[in-house]
Amino acid sequence: MDFLRPATWEEALAAKAAHPEAVPIAGGTDLMVELNFGRRRPACLLDLGRIGELARWHREKGAVRLGAAVPYREIAAALGGPLPALAHAARAVGSPQIRNRGTVGGNLGTASPAGDAHPALLAAGAAVEAASVRGTRLIPVEEFFTGPRRNALAADELIRAVRIDPAGGPQEFAKVGTRNAMVVAVCSFALALDEAGRSVRTGIGSAAPTPRRAREAEEFLAGVLAEGGHWEDRRPPPPSAARRFAELAAAACAPIDDVRGSAAYRRHAVAVLARRTLDRTWTAYRGGERCA
Amino acid sequence: MRVNLTVNGRPAHAEGVWEGESLLYVLRERLGLFGTKNACEQGECGSCTVRLDGEPVCACLVAAGQAEGREVETVESLAGAAGLSAVQEAFAEAGAVQCGFCTPGLLMATDALLRREPRPAEAEIREALSGNLCRCTGYEQILSAVRLAAARRAEGAR
């Protein structure tokens, strides 16, 4: 096995071009498990830990450009303002030890349907910055996941950053698990309201072969909110509409039975999370009043 | 490959390291530091918690080559010439040790918490220790030990 240790981003791209079989490693929280258990023996590891820029974030034309190797600890501590759903998801990852190492770039690279960052990135409308020696392209996150643990990266590409517009309204993330720490999501859900755009976006985790949006639920809720004048008068949507939103969110799932939960439970729980996150986001939108 | 790092303030190096090897393996099997425990090897149990450049991490999830040039502190760094640290003494006094296997990781997690937050609230203690498992059902005594260590520090006893 080779262990490549590029000192700069350009060296990393050159190394990935020369060794397309190289597996990138940053926080190691997924890959090292596979190595420790002998499930994977890559010919080459590409350590991205020396490249300082990957572990930093900054604002660029209003959006947050989040380096692929910014640890969850930093996202939870510093980005709750512009990226509330992602910061919330970051706080729900693993344990302090895992949040000190784990990264959004790694979550995307692994592309597990259960990755905690994914629903938040989907709801926020993030774009993945994929780079190679051939150039850089922006992949909308809903096009990034191509199958269970498969993503849209070419063999010579690396994830450099994720670009995320700051929240245009309240956002929530919710996750079901057997305890509050060290849990792979049984299912998860994120909801983002965009006041200026009068739009709604969602993300479902661990209830389909890939993380995905619940588009019909989004369109239904956006229609209810627009037709009822809810954005203007801030009255909560009627309970029947909240129920329908939840049903449509569940209908967007294509879950499986596995050791963490049954398909039926996941569908039910996604509906519960959809209603709960709608309640919480609308409560926040109203300025703290409790909605029905 | 060869890996050079600083362990508990002293330069250390290991030869013939396999590229897929963990920092945990290097610490235990190559450097003879057996305080850091090997249990789940998947970041679930916290028994291998060490500080990497000051941050608590699971040594089993750090590739050895990633520790090149970095500073690692293990449980062996806690006790000084004067004896056990305040955190270690609090664990012993509170009966927070039964089989002892989880203890090094819990000591490192507690030490990191109290360095960052000398007077942690109950929820902060539980959160800080949420990545460390104890299978002797000793959590109440462990929480008592953390409170005791925090109180001792606040008193300035040490």
Considering the chains and any ligands shown, give keywords for the structure.
heterodimer, A: 292 residues, alpha+beta, Enolase-like, domain 1, 5-stranded antiparallel beta sheet, globular, B: 158 residues, Ubiquitin-like (UB roll), 2 domains, 5 helices, 5 strands
Protein described:
The complex is a heterodimer of chains A (about 290) and B (about 160). With about 290 residues, chain A is of the alpha+beta class. Chain A is about 35% helix and about 20% strand. Chain A has a domain at about 170-285: CO dehydrogenase flavoprotein, C-terminal domain (Enolase-like, domain 1). In chain A, strands 4-5-10-6-7 form a 5-stranded antiparallel β-sheet. A 3-stranded parallel β-sheet of chain A has the order 1-3-2, covered by helices on one side. In chain A, a hairpin with a 2-residue loop joins strand 8 and strand 9. In chain A, helix 3 (about 70-80) packs across helix 4, helix 4 packs antiparallel against helix 7 (about 115-125) and helix 9 (about 215-225) packs antiparallel against helix 11. The longest helix of chain A is centred in the C-terminal third of the chain and has 24 residues, at about 265-285. The radius of gyration of chain A is 19 Å and the shape is globular. Chain B has about 160 residues and is an alpha+beta fold. Chain B contains 5 helices and 5 strands, in the order E-E-H-E-E-E-H-H-H-H. Chain B is globular. In chain B, helix 2 crosses helix 5 (about 140-155). Chain B has 2 domains: about 5-75, Beta-grasp domain (Ubiquitin-like (UB roll)); about 85-155, DNA polymerase, domain 1. Classes of the chains: A alpha+beta (about 290), B alpha+beta (about 160). The interface of A and B includes residues 29, 36, 94, 97 and 98 of A.
